[in-house]
Design goal:
The complex is a heterodimer of chains A (298) and B (377). Chain A is mainly α. In chain A, 71% of the residues lie in helices and 4% in strands. Chain B has 377 residues and is an alpha/beta fold. Classes of the chains: A mainly alpha (298), B alpha/beta (377).
Chain lengths: 298, 377
């Protein structure tokens, strides 16, 4: 295998990985704060795709407006899901909340199935994101260059919010001990809502970029990327935002390299992503950047 | 009091017998198709075709209404098996139409076989679907034939000497058709320079595409479904892999063109039917009625869906109409001979349950499906 192909595969892997990373951040934030694995997160990603699709293809908004509105609306959906489905179970056992999350996931999938039908829709790609650049016969599709940049920019913004703002401080405090934070007079429910809003905003962003890369969207599309992003969050160390992004990159690159190095095994590449996860967890049970799970601190 | 209760029960039982007797003027037929999920476009299209066929022939000759009961299998194997069981045990259907893809049909077939209920698939082309089964038949040709047609077309018309094959590992249809193609192509003297694998849920083909580029084939044969083909074509063209792509009947759905856009221009595929190349008088009436009702031309799935229905109704009539038993229906489905259906003249081999019929080659041109040629068996 020559250098061009290796470079090409790396480009492919990094851009796929940054998509997983964006979605993984939401998993990790919600887990860090309320210790809930939000299985509906992948479906929020799907919701973001359909909102953006509706904005561009049905309401004829300019793409940036459609994207922004879609992300805000998805953030709102995330908050509503928390208020309706998770908040009443805040003091219930974790397994009840987990099963509720699976229920929410089915609910979102099936309501979008009713609204938009099961036939895949073609996602309209704005021309800015089309096309590709050829450097020494390594091809960089525009979307593959833009995605990692967007992912890193939003990761930095998120880290800024978490570490430099009061609400960010409250979120980090919540991840240590909710009751103590409540005694300090902080509106815990508001902060948790904000966590869901941020996570869902990023999931929608990931969803939109996913849809521009693979422009066939259907209501069940969030399941597999959602699972991979979950794996990425665990791999990076669940509870750590930087870890989630890193985990995403690693899973993306691994997947692409498995196909590139062992073409005959390409049909099992999902299995490899998860095998790799198990392998890492055997040696580092808290994930790469994870600390003791009971003291997650982003 | 006890006596009153028991007499009430007796009356209720008698009434229910009466009720079932009055409903006997109806024959229930189960339909298992994907209305949602990855291959939903196929199921919805086939259902349109079958509904239209039903409105053209809603009853048997002796006046029994045919009632179609549709269950959605979501394009999944497990759901197909569940749906087939439910239709047989809960709805007591006399026959089943379905499913669309080979893998799904194979998941449901053993249950129909075990319960001796005839099952006729409109479009599952993998040879294993009917292998060793007495109650499973199909309205379409099988993949060894389809693969041969594709190989001949690539060899003779595209003059391609080196082919690469993309196989969807978890779809029996894709694996079977790919091997049929490779065997036929090698026999003609062609060379297979690369075999790449992927799976149904994949949306990223960049790794396979990078590898294909280095192997430099003359043509890429990808027996898969419309969504995978559309995404693959887009990514291939984006990465500068510009060789012609050939596919099987899984390519044909409007969604292929909508999702694939310019990238699928020139994509050629083998299929069952073209609305503008009428094979029988029924083709003409059906296409006209379809266009009137749905404001669009029928595709192969719609035509096959209708054919599965027509073949079944024909068999029910032969088997005695209202009095038809599943076993008799199955006998006449399997003895369908020179039936002039929508997709052509259909003969089913009584031993194998496979239909013997011609194939059509179509391609995408300027955002439309156009007719290329017809190949007889």
């Amino acid at each position: 295998m020559d250098l061009t192909i290796i470079l090409q595969q790396l480009v492919n892997g990094v851009s796929l990985g940054s998509l997983y990373g964006l979605v993984a951040i939401g998993y990790t934030m919600v887990y860090g704060v309320i210790r809930l694995i939000n299985f509906a997160h992948g479906d929020i990603m799907m919701v973001g795709m359909y909102f953006a699709f509706t904005g561009i293809a049905m309401m004829f908004l300019p793409w940036w407006a459609a994207f922004l509105l879609s992300m805000l609306a998805s953030a709102l959906v995330g908050v509503i899901v928390d208020r309706v489905a998770y908040k009443p179970l805040r003091n219930a056992s974790r397994i009840s909340a987990l099963i509720t999350a699976i229920g929410v996931s089915f609910f979102l999938e099936n309501s979008f199935l009713v609204i938009y039908g099961g036939v895949p829709k073609a996602f309209p790609i704005p021309s800015v994101f089309n096309g590709a650049i050829n450097i020494h016969s390594v091809i960089f599709p525009n979307i593959a260059i833009i995605t990692p940049i967007v992912a890193i920019v939003f990761l930095l913004i998120l880290l800024f919010i978490l570490h430099k703002t009061k609400y960010g401080m409250a979120m980090r405090a919540l991840s240590f001990d909710i009751d103590t934070v409540r005694i300090m007079g902080i509106n815990v429910d508001l902060v948790i809502s904000l966590v869901f809003a941020l996570g869902s905003f990023l999931a929608a962003l990931g969803g939109i970029f996913w849809a521009m890369r693979y422009p066939a969207i259907n209501p069940l599309i969030g399941i597999m990327p959602g699972l991979k992003a979950f794996a990425a969050a665990v791999l990076g160390g669940i509870g750590s935002v930087t870890g989630a992004a890193l985990g995403g990159f690693i899973i993306g690159v691994t997947e692409i390299l498995v196909v590139a190095l062992f073409p005959a095994l390409a049909g099992y590449k999902d299995a490899f992503a998860f095998l790799f996860l198990i392998f890492v967890l055997l040696f580092k049970p808290t994930g790469i950047l994870g600390e003791d799970l009971e003291r997650g601190r982003f | 009091m006890k006596r009153l209760l028991s007499s009430l029960v007796a009356v209720a039982v008698a009434l229910s017998f009466l009720a079932s007797a009055s409903f006997a003027k109806e024959i229930k037929v189960g339909v298992v198709w994907p209305i949602t999920g990855l291959v939903a476009a196929f199921g919805q299209s086939a259902w349109k075709g079958a509904q239209l066929a039903h409105s053209m022939k809603p009853a048997t000759k002796d006046g029994c209404k045919i009632k179609l009961i549709l269950l959605d299998n979501k394009g999944m194997k497990l759901e197909t098996a569940n749906a087939v069981s439910k239709l047989i045990t809960d709805n007591h259907v006399k026959a089943i139409i379905g499913a669309i893809t080979s893998s799904n049909t194979m998941a449901g077939a053993p249950i129909a076989e075990k319960n001796h209920i005839p099952m006729i698939t409109s479009s599952a082309t993998n040879p294993l679907v009917t292998k060793g089964k007495k109650y499973i038949s199909r309205a379409c040709f099988i993949d060894p034939f389809q693969g041969k047609v594709a190989a001949k077309y690539i060899w003779n018309n595209l003059h391609a000497k080196k082919a690469a094959v993309m196989i969807e590992r978890d779809q029996d249809y894709s694996v079977g058709l790919a091997h049929a193609f490779m065997n036929a192509y090698k026999k003609l003297g062609g060379k297979i320079v690369a075999v790449e694998f992927f799976q149904s849920t994949d949306q990223d083909y960049s790794a396979q595409i990078s590898d294909l580029k280095s192997k430099n084939p003359d043509v890429i044969y990808m027996p898969s479904y419309y969504q995978e083909l559309a995404l693959f074509s887009r990514q291939a063209r984006q990465y500068g892999l510009n060789q012609p792509i050939m596919a099987g009947d899984g390519a044909e759905a409007e969604a292929l063109i909508k999702i694939g856009g310019k990238a699928v221009n020139g994509l050629t595929f083998t299929t069952h039917f073209d609305p503008h190349a009428a094979a029988t008088p029924l083709t003409v009436t059906f296409v006209k009625a379809f266009e009137k009702k749905y404001k669009t031309s029928p595709d192969a799935m719609a035509a096959l869906g209708a054919d599965a229905y027509f073949i079944l109704v024909n068999a029910i009539n032969e088997a005695g109409g209202c009095k038809a038993t599943p076993k008799k229906i199955n006998y006449y489905v399997r003895h369908t001979k020179d039936f002039k259906g929508v997709t052509g003249v259909i003969t089913i081999n009584p031993k194998t349950g496979n239909a013997i019929k011609s194939a059509v080659i179509r391609k995408v041109k300027d955002g439309k499906f156009v007719y290329v040629t017809t190949v007889n068996p």
